[in-house]
Write a structure and sequence with these properties.
- This protein is an alpha/beta fold.
- It is built from 24 helices and 20 strands.
- The strands form 4 sheets. It has a 6-stranded parallel beta sheet.
- Strand 15 and strand 16 form a beta hairpin.
- Helix 5 packs across helix 12.
- The longest helix has 21 residues.
- It is globular, with a radius of gyration of 25 Å.
- About 45% of the residues are buried.
């Protein structure tokens, strides 16, 4: 970890924090020059680790970055500093050092302890296996049988697990059947209890809206009485918990629980440690929690990789295997636990969906995603270089700028959208056209970053639209300009990640239209929008929770610290059909070989 490689604000904040820690320590007892320098470097490293998404830092790693210091020397420095607490005596110290030499900022240690404590609360089975329940599951998942060819129906098994357990974690990529599983699970719960209180939530407004839409589509086969009782609304997690004027505080918490019986959280891989802790604490221990996500996707922007950690142990013990076999009419020997892993408090809670119903293992995009996920850079580059699959395009370039070939591919990608803007009399059909294609970037800066690409693409697309109500270059606004909201506005009910499109209203005034409910739109004047940006291109992080017919992934021209297989995998799996990758072989190989590992003690605390 090199401070030179980090954005300046993160470096400045880290140095300021380190100086504050040294000052705090020196106020309690005098420090000699060596001790002061060592404590400064420890605090600097820890703060930079937090900027990288780590929850803690290991003393061994800090020592390795600061030779000739040893772990023992760092431990002695911290213990003598007066600013380091322990798990048994955290006090009000800014740093906490645990027995395994993991060093935390106090607030992250507190969040981790609280989440582990909530997860380790006793979990009694919530359903008894009976003939009626077996029949419900068999009926709801009957359509799966013809495609299984004798294999176990892991969707039905996951639903059965959720009926038995207060916490179920389902990990799988797009197209693996998570939504279908949840729809059938909710139908089963509503048949048991028509008054069951169900909440749907996701980290972003965009993901929450897409979740609700997907559930409605998958529920069309259900009886009308069940469809009528399915949730009619989805929430961002912040809105579900209830934002208050106090920063970081919510109306619902351990002392004011949510009035729900079931909570479904989609795109849970985007949950950071702090938000996950506050969410779990606000849910009654009698309620079911079902987390849906993809353990192989990018982790949260903030600190922690909670979903990946919680979904790490998909093992089932003998009792659960036997119960699930009876409940789902599955031969016991077919319900195989995964390879033995270190037992945690969450075994009997996790199911991995590995079969993709959108892309077969033999499809180009399916094979590409699998090779990326496996870290097999040789296979990825060989598949790209073969150029034998029309669904996959590789624009091999190390040039700093996007280049003519890629620019023309972008213009072609947005051609249907340009035509839709030209011909539309209302904004209703623009969103479907816009969501067919998207440019995804690894970074925000440089000529291959979000900022520069949005400027380039906007210029090209605006000229092609040539709308008669375009006010001209004196305004950034024009019919067809897509924007992404960057800051939550609870008055306007606009949330970080929401996409709107500028278009004249029925009176000819240029407004920004946002999806509102399952089928509606609402208009907001451009001057009222919270912070926003043009959205022809977006970061891969911002694309989580979205899907497009075609994506173009633009990688940086040279090595960059953000590159990882999780980033490339997340980008590729945003596509329903076609993928274009812009980048040189060296950068692609580096990204696929790289893996994001976030330091945390959560799994250790769950043992």
């Amino acid at each position: 970890m090199n401070p030179v490689d980090l954005p300046l604000p993160a470096d400045l904040l880290a140095r300021g924090f380190a100086s504050h820690v040294v000052s705090w320590s020196s106020q309690q007892q005098p420090l000699n020059e060596d001790a002061s320098r060592m404590l400064h470097q420890i605090a600097l490293y820890l703060s930079l680790a937090g900027s990288d998404g780590h929850v803690c830092a290991r003393l061994a790693d800090i020592a390795a970055a600061n030779p000739p210091w040893s772990t023992a020397m760092l431990r002695a420095c911290l213990q003598a500093s007066g600013v380091t607490g322990t798990p048994a005596k955290p006090g009000a110290q800014p740093l906490i050092l645990d027995d395994d030499d993991r060093l935390y900022l106090h607030r992250y240690f507190d969040y981790e302890q609280r989440l582990a404590r909530r997860l380790m609360q006793p979990r009694a089975a919530l359903a008894m296996v009976d003939t009626a329940l077996q029949l419900r599951l068999n009926n709801l998942f009957a359509a799966n049988q013809k495609g299984l060819a004798g294999r176990p129906d892991w969707q039905k098994i996951a639903a059965g697990l959720a009926l038995l357990s207060p916490l179920t974690i389902i990990s799988g990529g797009p197209g693996t059947g998570k939504t279908t599983t949840v729809v059938n699970l909710l139908a089963c719960l509503l048949e048991q209890n028509p008054d069951c209180r169900i909440a749907l939530a996701a980290p972003t407004g965009k993901a929450a809206a897409r979740m609700l839409e997907a559930l409605r589509l998958r529920a069309e086969h259900l009886p009308a009485a069940i469809q009528a009782r399915l949730p009619a609304e989805s929430f961002t997690i912040h809105r579900l918990l209830g934002v208050t004027p106090s920063a970081g505080e919510f109306r619902h918490h351990g002392g004011n629980l949510l009035a729900i019986d079931v909570l479904i959280v989609d795109e849970a891989s985007m949950l950071d440690l702090a938000l996950a802790t506050k969410l779990f604490e606000a849910v009654p221990t009698t309620a079911r929690i079902i987390l849906l996500g993809d353990k192989d996707q990018l982790a949260a922007v903030e600190s922690g990789a909670v979903f990946a950690e919680l979904s790490a142990d998909p093992t089932l013990d003998a009792q659960y295997r036997s119960t699930l076999a009876d409940l789902t009419d599955t031969p016991l020997q077919r319900i195989e636990p995964a390879a033995p892993l270190t037992p945690t408090a969450l075994h009997n809670s996790v199911v991995w969906f590995t079969e993709n119903f959108r892309f077969s293992k033999d499809s180009g995009v399916g094979r590409l995603a699998a090779a990326i996920n496996a870290g097999n850079a040789v296979a990825v580059l060989a598949q790209l270089a073969a150029r034998d699959d029309p669904a996959i395009t590789w624009i091999d370039t190390d040039a700093p700028a996007l280049g003519e070939e890629a620019t023309q591919a972008v213009v072609a990608g947005y051609a249907a959208y340009v035509e839709a803007v030209r011909s539309a009399s209302t904004p209703a059909r623009l969103f479907n056209a816009f969501n067919r294609f998207r440019v995804l970037c690894a970074i925000r800066e440089t000529a291959r970053g979000v900022g520069a690409l949005n400027t380039l693409i906007s210029t090209q697309i605006r000229a092609q639209i040539a709308h008669p109500q375009d006010p001209g270059s004196q305004s950034a606004w024009y019919p067809g300009r897509p924007v992404m909201v960057l800051r939550n506005d609870y008055v306007l009910k606009l949330f970080n990640g929401d996409i709107g499109i500028a278009f004249p209203d029925q009176n000819g005034a240029l407004m920004v239209f946002f999806p509102d409910g399952p089928d509606g739109l609402r208009a907001v004047a451009p001057v009222r929008l919270p912070d926003h940006d043009t959205a022809f291109a977006m970061t891969v992080h911002k694309s989580q929770g979205s899907e497009f017919d075609e994506v173009m992934l633009v990688l940086p021209a040279e090595s960059n610290r953000v590159l990882s297989r999780e980033l490339v995998y997340t980008a590729v799996t945003r596509s329903r059909k076609d993928v274009t990758i812009v980048g040189g072989a060296g950068v692609i190989g580096e990204a696929v070989r790289g893996r994001t590992v976030r330091e945390s003690g959560l799994v250790a605390r769950l043992k």
